[in-house]
Amino acid sequence: MQIKKTLLKILALIIITSALFGCGSIENHNSADVIIYGGTSAGLSAAIQSARLEKSVILIEPTNRLGGLTTGGLGQTDIGNKQVIGGISREFYKNIKTYYLDSANWVWQLRSEYIDEGQSRSRKDENAMWTFEPSAALKVYHKMIENLDIRIVYNQKLNRAEGVSKNYKAIKSISMESGDIFFGKVFIDATYEGDLMAAAGVSYTIGRESNSQYGESLNGIQSNKFGTTLLGAVSNNSVYHNFIDGVDPYIVKGDSSSGLLPFISAKEYRSEGQGDEGIQAYCFRMTLTDHPENRIPFQKPKGYNEMDYELLFRNYEAATGPIEEMYSYGDPLVPWINSPMPNRKTDTNNQKGFSTDFIGQNWEYPEASYEERENILIRHRQYQQGLMWTLGYHHRIPKIVRDKVSQWGTCKDEYEREDGWQQQLYIREARRMISNYVMTQKNCEGIEIVQDPVGMAAYGMDSHHIKRYVNSNGFVSNEGNVEARVKAPFPISYRSIVPKIEECSNLVVPICLSATHIAFGSIRMEPVFMVLGQSSAVIASLAIEEDKAVQEIAYNKIREMLLKLDQILE
Q1: Cα(532)–Cα(190) distance, rounded to whole angstroms?
Q2: Which of the chain's termini has less CB crowding within 10 Å, N or C?
C-alpha cells in the first residue's frame, strides 16, 4: 500500500510538472553552454565561434535586427591597418567581397561604376572588401550563421534591476523584462552599453579620466588646438569639426542676458586634462542615396524648431570668403563625410562644427532606463532629420549647399522604417569595465606592450567632440575631439576583457572592455569588436572544458587556439 501511494505521488508530480513546463523544464529549454547578450558584430562573432567549437549557444538581441552598427549604417569600415584583422572578422569581409562579385547584387548601379574611396578602400588584389551596404552586411551575417546551431532570441531586454542571479562569483542565470530566464555556464556581454556587465556587479566607469590618473596626455578635457602625445608627437585636438571663429553663442547676438542657444553647455568649465562625465557624441551613420527611384527626400520632422539650427546658420554666415573655402579639408560645402557605398549609397558621418553629432546630448544615455534611452534616440533622430531638411531646403542655408544636399535622401530598401532611417544609434562610448588591466594611451603608443594579447587594434586615438561651450573669447566652440596616430598596431590584453575574478568568474566583455576613454577611442572599431568577440568565445569554451573561471585559463592555451583560428596577435 505504501509503495502504491508513493508511486501515485510521483505520477501526480510528473503530471503537474508537465502541465507547468511542457515536455521539458524552462531551465533546460532556455539553457546553453554560452549565453551571449547583444547581437552586435562582437556578439555574432562570439556566437559563430562558440557554435564551431561545439558549444550550445543562445544569442539574445534586444532589438529585431542583428549586427549592431555593421548592419546599422557603418559601412565605411574604420580599420587603421587591415593586416591585423584576422579570424572571423577577416572572414566576414571576405564574404562581403564574395557577395559583391555576384552581379545580381548590383541593383542601382553597375559594379564597374562604383568607385571605392576613403581610408578603407578595397584594393583590386585584396581577398576582402571593406565598404558595403548595411543590408548586404545583414545578409552576409545571416548566411554565416544559417547552418550553425545558434538559437537567436529577438526583442528581449535584460532586467537590469534584478535580472542577474549569481551563485557566489558566477552568474547562474539572467532574466529578461518579459520574465524569460536564461541559464548558462559562461556569459558574454556583447552590448555597446555594457548592461549585463553592470547588472552583474562588475566595476566600470563612464566619462573621461584625468590625465594624471593613468599617466596620459590626451585624456580629459581637450580644448587646446594642439596636444602632445607621450612620445612627443603633436596631436590635433579640437582642430577639426569646429566652428569658424566669431560665431556668437547667445540668442540675441552680443547679449549674454538673452541666454545661450540650444545645445551649448552652461556648466562651469574645468581645466585642460581634467576628467569629467562626458562621453563622445552619438549620431546616426546615415545611409543616403541620390538615385531617384530609391530615394526618400528629406522631410521636416514633427516638432521642428528652427532655433535648434541657429548655430548652423551663423556658422555659414561667419564665412568671410567664398563658401567653398570655409573649410580646409573634406567637403567644402556640406558638414558631412559622404563616403560612397555600392549601389549609389553612402555611409554619411559627422564633419565640421555643426553636423550630425548631437554634441553633449547623450551624457545620460549609459545609465538611463530603456524608456529614457529610447527618448534620447528619438531626439537624436529628430535632430538629425531636422538638420538634413535644413541643409537641403532652409532659405538661410546658401543655395549652393541646398542644391547639393537636396539631391540626396534616405533609402527605400535598407531599413525597416518607412522613412528610411535606422534604429541603431552610433553608441561611440558608454560604460567601460575596470578590470585587473586597463588599456591606456601607453598601450596605444607602444610604451607598454601586453604579453597576453587576444587581438590587436590599429586605429588612431579618436574621440569625437563631447561638449559645446563658450570659449574665452566669448564665442562658441566644440571640445573633446582628439585625432592622434598610434605608433603601430598594438595588442589588447586578455585581462582587459575579463572582469576581476572576485566580481564575476564567468563573464567576458569584448566591447565595453577595460580601457581609458582615450585608449577606447582607438580600440572601438567594428572589426576589432569582431576579433574580440571571437576571442571571448575561445576563452568561454576553454573555461567550460576545464571547469575554470574565465580568468584562470593558461594564456598559452588561449594563444594556441587563437592562432589556429587565424587570429593575429602580433
Answers
A1: 10
A2: N
Nearest one of 78, 163, 75, 134 to 347, comparing CA atoms: 75
Q: Give the integer Cα–Cα distance in Å for 192 and 207.
A: 15
172 SS3 class: strand
Q: Give the C-alpha separation, 311 to 265, whole Å.
A: 14
3-state secondary structure 452-493: CEEEEECCCEEECCCEEEECCCCCEEEECCEEECCCCCEEEE
Question: Residue 148 gets which letter from DSSP?
Answer: S
How far lies 459's CA from each of 81, 489, 524, in Å? 7, 8, 9
* Contacts (Cβ under 8 Å, ≥6 apart) of 488: 446, 458
Three-class DSSP category at 498: coil
Question: From the CB of residue 19, how many other CB atoms can be counted at a distance below 10 Å?
Answer: 8
Select from 481, 191, 235 the least CA-distant residue to 360.
481
pLDDT over 80 at 27, yes or no: no
- For the beta carbon of residue 196, count every other beta carbon within 10 angstroms: 28
Cα 310 from Cα 441, distance rounded (Å):
37
What is the per-residue pLDDT across 388-432, written as a single tens digit (0 to 9) for each? Answer: 999 999 999 999 999 999 999 999 999 999 999 999 999 999 999
Backbone angles phi and psi of 443, in degrees to 5: -70, -40
List Cβ neighbours of 413 (8 Å cut-off, separation of 6 or more). 107, 135, 294
**Pair 385, 410: CB distance under 8 Å:** no
Angle between helices 41-52 and 526-546 (to 10 degrees): 40
Enumerate the β-bridge partners of residue 288: 410
- Residue 123 is placed in which grid cell? 584594393
Does the pLDDT at position 5 exceed 60? no
Could you give the CA distance from residue 222 to residue 224 in angstroms, rounded to a whole number?
6
Find the Cα–Cα–Cα–Cα dihedral 461, 466, 472, 477, rounded to 10°: 90
Q: What is the pLDDT of residues 315-324, one digit of tens each?
A: 999 987 777 6
CA distance 453 to 457: 10
**Alpha carbon 114 to chain centroid distance?**
27
Q: ∠321-469-460 over CA atoms, to 5°?
A: 80
Start-to-end C-alpha separation, the chain: 73
